[in-house]
Design a protein that fits this description.
about 250 residues; alpha/beta; 2 domains; 11 strands; about 40% helix; about 15% strand
């Protein structure tokens, strides 16, 4: 049986905050988090209602960096309803907020769109700050991370290892031209590692395991951390598959 993890990047839009103005936090929340549209809300509450109806627990990767301009109360407004309904909160980080943070920029004015625009030491500082903000907003200590725009690199994995976060979910092979800069071993090495992990888990060859999966395409919804991942720089790298699901 294959474990499937339903994960949601959950963030105030920095671009929308710039267009509407920093005074318009509630409007940014309505658009980015609550997902208000002309046809009704499609944001986190709607998503949780659908998951609850099917007995599914979601993993919400919440970006706490808007706390630089709005304080951690703005992040608590996102975190609290997720935890209240029994879903999971993990760490997300969009460095774009550094550009509009003014004097609150923790790197003395350094800016960048992606984490890979920063050195490893700078990434450590940003990750530690983001984790602190997330926990101040009421979330448990995160064990998993996903970079905003998937914009991580190998230094991100080393930085995560340094601060004790064991799982990264920024690698996204299904999106051509993504901002992810995480390196991969050669294809032969990847196949050998995957085959060995399959044998260790099931006592069967990778080919027979894949054949069995095709015959029985059932899956279960899992909670973090995933069972299947590859290790790099002391952090488990969990690749993501992006999909659009319509009801």
């Amino acid at each position: 049986m294959t474990a499937v993890y339903i994960t949601i990047d959950t963030e105030y839009s920095a671009g929308l905050a710039i267009r509407l103005g920093l005074h318009a936090r509630e409007a940014v929340y309505a658009r980015s988090i609550a997902g208000h549209t002309a046809d009704g809300a499609v944001g986190i509450e709607h998503q949780m209602e659908v998951m609850d109806a099917h007995g599914i627990k979601g993993v919400f990767f919440v970006d706490p960096m808007p706390a630089l301009v709005w304080g951690t109360g703005a992040i608590a407004e996102v975190v609290e309803p997720i935890l209240a309904r029994g879903h999971e909160v993990q760490l997300h980080l969009h460095p774009e907020w550094m550009e509009i943070a003014g004097d609150a920029n923790p790197l003395n004015g350094r800016t960048g769109r992606n984490l890979h625009d920063f050195t490893e030491d700078e990434q450590v500082e940003l990750l530690e700050l983001a984790r602190e903000y997330l926990m101040q907003a009421g979330a448990p200590a995160p064990t998993a991370f996903r970079a905003g725009n998937y914009g991580a690199d190998d230094a991100t994995l080393r930085a995560l290892h340094r601060i004790g976060i064991r799982y990264d979910s920024s690698h996204v092979p299904g999106i051509a031209g993504s901002d992810c800069r995480i390196g991969l071993p050669p294809p032969t090495a990847r196949w050998s590692a995957a085959r060995e992990r399959s044998r260790c888990r099931s006592g069967r060859s990778a080919a027979s395991a894949a054949s069995a999966m095709r015959r029985s395409p059932r899956c279960r919804i899992g909670k973090w951390p995933p069972r299947c991942a590859s290790a790099c720089a002391g952090v488990w790298r969990c690749s993501i598959s992006s999909a659009t699901v319509s009801s």
